[in-house]
Amino acid sequence: MPINILVTEDESIVRKDIERCLGNLGYNVVASADNGEDAINMAIKHKPDLALMDIMIKGDMNGIAAAEEIKRNINIPVVFLTAYADENTLNEAKMAEPHGYILKPFKDVDIQTAIEMALHKHGKEQEVRQETEFLRSLAEHKEDSDIIFVKNRSRLIRVKNEDLLFVEALKDYVVVHTTTESYTIHSTMKDVETKLSGSDFMRVHRSYIVNIEAIESMKYSMITIRGMEKEIPVGGSYKDLLAQRINLL
């Protein structure tokens, strides 16, 4: 999908030139404005991926103030356009924390470079924000007995006990099977069994721990887990305890 861009420029000739440039580069101009108030309204309505904003625009609100308001409402990257490179203008623009700065006159490559760098920077910022929120969630729920966190590469995945179907030993690793994904982690069955010591889980084999609530049926010494074709063996030393746990009649 093309990148949607909002253009704010009060000089119509320059605005049309920017729109032409963006079109040639493969971007989609989702809306244009010539003043700050319209730019804010257009941004809220169309939710573009990025805003190109002239600093010195007509009206009561300059581009810097408009950019700050847009970022407060929809949190998109803003790249400033300006013919002014004096220190005062730069210092004022910095307060809006733009993701780029293009000086007029500009070339097509200047716009493309600024846009791509801004989108990349914004994407990384979003990743950091999501990671921070995740860690905050981890801290808030660390005492919850119905939630575990599974390490998947460099991330921690939050899994509810009810969604964890079974755990399978695989040499030096264990595979945690959930209703949606399977995660291979470097751990031992003993360690996993300790962390899943609640009433919902039980070791049924030296290589398997199952969620009792996920058992769909049993035949001889094999367990069928809901939504799974794989059958899980039940070790001889675990049969009696399993019969008690599932209230076998």
How would you describe this protein?
The strands form 4 sheets. Strands 2-1-3-4-5 form a 5-stranded parallel sheet, sandwiched between helices. It has 249 residues and is an alpha/beta fold. It folds into 2 domains: 134 residues, Rossmann fold; 99 residues, OB fold (Dihydrolipoamide Acetyltransferase, E2P) (Beta Barrel). Helix 2 packs parallel to helix 3. Strand 11 and strand 12 form a beta hairpin. Helix content is 37%, strand content 30%. The chain is built from 7 helices and 15 strands.
And the CATH topology of the largest domain?
Answer: Rossmann fold
Q: Radius of gyration, rounded?
A: 28 Å
Helix segment count?
7
> Can you write the helix and strand succession as a string?
EHEHEHEHEHEEEEEHEEEEEH
Major β-sheet profile: 5 strands, parallel
Say what oligomer this is: single chain
- Fourth-level CATH superfamily of the largest domain: Response regulator
- pLDDT average, as an integer? 87
Placed side by side, the strands forming the largest sheet appear as: 2-1-3-4-5
What's the total number of strands? 15
CATH architecture of the largest domain: 3-Layer(aba) Sandwich
Q: Regions with pLDDT < 50 over 5+ consecutive residues?
A: none
Distance between the termini: 58 Å
**Overall body shape:** rod-shaped
- The CATH class designation of the largest domain is Alpha Beta
